[in-house]
Amino acid sequence: MPQPLAYRMRPQRIEDVVGQQHLVGPGKIIARMVKAKMLSSMILYGPPGTGKTSIASAIAGSTKYAFRKLNAATDSKKDLQIVAEEAKMSGTVILLLDEIHRLDKTKQDFLLPHLESGRIILIGATTENPYISINPAIRSRTQIFEVKPLTPDDIKVAINRALVDDQNGLGDQNIRLAPEAASLLATATNGDLRSALNGLELAAKSTDPTDGVIELTLPIIEECVQKKAFSHDKDGDAHYDVISAFQKSIRGSDTDAALHYLARLVTAGDLPSIARRLTVIAYEDIGLANPPAAARVVDAVTAAQRLGFPEARIPLADAVIELCLSPKSNSGMMAIDAAMADIASGHYGDIPAHLKDAHYKGAEKLGHGVDYQYPHNFTNDWVKQQYLPDKLKNAQYYQPKTNGKFETALAQQYERLKTAQRDS
Q1: DSSP secondary structure string for all residues of 390-423
Q2: Where is the AAA+ ATPase domain (predicted)?
């Protein structure tokens, strides 16, 4: 049985990796490792289909090292021993270990000395947060890199490569992919290139040619990826227009409009976009005016992800209605953006000496921490002292709003503390 298109199209050189330019682009960390042939073991974490295996394959292809792939959950210690023996004979083996968060202690203990000797370059792949799910003994011997969802433009690049590659792709077939169908492939799979290529290959194999041409239309791609397009939009902008209208309707407190756009997203089966956008809205647009609403949105999103469609629509609708009818405030976002603007423009100054770390020998001679006053030793657990650098000591980033009871109370406390800092 032939290998799937997504497998055949895996890059053999680091330059051919689609997306992940923060890791494999010119001058970036993994590209530098490959160029210098100074590879270290690493963990790649991120959503499925975003290129973890592709990066490992490209590293091996670029360095000409042997490449082996195992699964931490299903492959045995004996399988690891075979890889280790190969490494002893050939010098270095790059081992892609999928689901590394499920590596048990026996396999881990076997691997550790081989990682330290450099005979095995481990590339662990996981969808879980490695800082939580991976044993510290492995984590301390690896560099950890986040692999991000691919953009629609990234996926379009990979689709076009597959359509013209006559060795590993579909270039030996006369395929005409409609622009709106290509846009659906690029957007409906939510950054999962494997799903996009699987959908493309299914469509190509299951569509009879007309006059020698396999015409892949929007309805065919909709069927093969089991997602509906928002509209016949050649550029794929409709997807982002719906998401934009969704957020703006909630921000504008129009419940019925927000539910309409939610319904479009639900119909398209786009749970990842809904989950991300609702979480952003909860903190960006409602924020400190109603913090419990943000917590309930997180709960609703978690429930929706566990339920899946069609039931997921119910907690999502509840969350949307509450966000629409909640008081609004973007003061938290505005505050951090104002602080970051100062940093970006070079306005940050030196940290006051009394706030610097004093937990090392010689710190006192430098004046670090000497005049620090511990607030809990004072009435109301507060004492006047300077925290900002001298050049920013009068900066005020937070501009409170009073659209909800919670932030109104915060605003009053903020002003009391600012007044006390100035006057006492």
Answers
A1: GGGTT--------SSHHHHHHHHHHHHHHHHHHH
A2: 38-150
Question: Residue 291: is its pLDDT beyond 90?
Answer: yes
Q: Is the pLDDT of residue 231 over 70?
A: no
Tell me the three state secondary structure of residue 145.
strand
The C-alpha atoms of residue 27 and residue 346 are separated, in whole angstroms, by: 25
**Mean of pLDDT values over 229-240:** 57
Helix (H) or strand (E) holding 264: helix 255-267
Q: What token pair was written down for 164? A: 């013209």
CB 389 within 8 A of CB 350: yes
CB 316 within 8 A of CB 258: no
**How far apart are the C-alpha atoms of 286 and 330, rounded to whole Å?**
7
Give residue 184's identity as a one-letter amino acid code.
Answer: L
The predicted structure's pLDDT at residue 28: 94
What residue numbers bound the domain in which 396 lies?
A: 332-423
Q: How many other CB atoms are there within 10 angstroms of residue 170's CB atom?
A: 24
Q: Rg of the chain's alpha carbons, rounded to an integer? A: 27
Round to whole Å and give the CA distance between 239 and 347: 39
In a domain, 233, yes or no: no
Residue count of the chain, please give it.
424
- Fill in the amino acid letter for 358: A
312 and 257 in a common domain: yes
C-alpha–C-alpha distance, residues 369 and 34, integer Å: 44
